[in-house]
Amino acid sequence: VQCEVIDSLVNLYFHRPLQTEEGLVRACEGGLLSTEYVNLCMWLASRLKPLCDLEENITSTFEMSGMLKELQCPYQGLVSGIIQEGLQNKKDYLKLVCKY
């Protein structure tokens, strides 16, 4: 999964430290406490907003949940998990990035 995410980021011209598997895994392990992970989510959201005519901006975890709802994310556990107790592991955080 990490390699697929990295390939997608490279294809989207994301030139940040998360273009290595180690960097991506480290950011996902930190989750919403990782500046790199949060910046990645905000960057992805900024690219999706005009393409999908989205209303939500991401400046907080609540808004991240709102954007996932607006994108009709099929993983309800991700949407509700962000608001309630946070996601549980790096796999959940990787899944979140994949859904963007």
From TrEMBL:
Organism lineage reads as:
Eukaryota, Metazoa, Chordata, Craniata, Vertebrata
Pfam families named among the record's database cross-references? DUF2465 (PF10239)
> What Gene Ontology terms describe where this protein resides (cellular component)?
tRNA-splicing ligase complex
Which family, according to UniProt?
A: Belongs to the FAM98 family.
- In Swiss-Prot or TrEMBL terms, this protein is called Family with sequence similarity 98 member B
